[in-house]
Design a protein that fits this description.
Low-confidence stretches: 182-188
Organism: Brassica napus
Order of helices and strands: HHHHEEEEEEEEEEEE
Protein name: (rape) hypothetical protein
Shape: globular
Distance between the termini: 66 Å
Structural class: alpha+beta
Pfam family, one: FBA_1
């Protein structure tokens, strides 16, 4: 009965229940509970500004109740400001936010639990494009899609190569693409 009730609560309320007892804390970390909770939860949006992060909850109403929009500031230390000469590439998947840091890796942030980590790549010329997972697999493993942009020693020729980074295995799978070497001078 507890599991059923907890699976209907919003994520922000669940965070508070971690401290109630060890049983609930382990339940909230259980993948089957997380999947059950995710399937029932209403869509929410995360809005990032240069200095603040907001959660936006949209309820379309129904049964005589009008639609509502609630916006709450989320306390975070998620780095959303761009560094000098850098564009921000932010993607989301299952309520997690992924943000690229050129030549460093991808930061992963859970806004509800306020946990953050960094996925570092050995290959520093990998550029983040997006994130997802293969829903046909029994166990969910996040995958990061991106590309390599390399330049030769003479700085005259470079190439792009697409790849998928498997987060669990920490390995790249390369994708055949029609891209070929290109001349840097042809861009000017």
């Amino acid at each position: 009965m507890e599991v059923e009730i907890l699976s209907w609560l919003p994520p922000r309320s669940l965070v508070r229940f971690r401290a109630v007892c060890k049983k609930w804390n382990s339940l909230l970390n259980d993948k089957s509970f997380v999947n059950q909770h995710s399937s029932r939860s209403r869509s929410q949006f995360i809005f990032l500004t240069k200095s603040k992060t907001y959660s936006i909850d949209v309820d379309l109403g129904g049964a005589g109740v009008g639609p509502t929009i609630k916006m709450c500031e989320v306390a975070s230390d998620f780095p959303c400001q761009p560094m000098k000469w850098e564009n921000i590439n932010v993607a989301s998947c299952d309520g997690l936010l992924f943000r690229e840091f050129l030549r460093k890796g991808v930061a992963v942030w859970n806004p509800w639990l306020k946990h953050m980590g960094l996925i570092e790549f050995k290959e520093k010329d990998f550029y983040f494009g997006g994130v997802g997972y293969d829903s046909n697999r029994p166990k969910k493993g996040y995958q990061i899609l991106g590309y390599f942009c390399r330049v030769d020693d003479t700085c005259k020729k470079g190439y792009d190569k697409f790849a998928v980074y498997e987060c669990a295995a920490k390995t790249f799978k390369f994708i055949d693409s029609p891209l070929r070497k290109w001349s840097l001078w042809s861009a000017f």
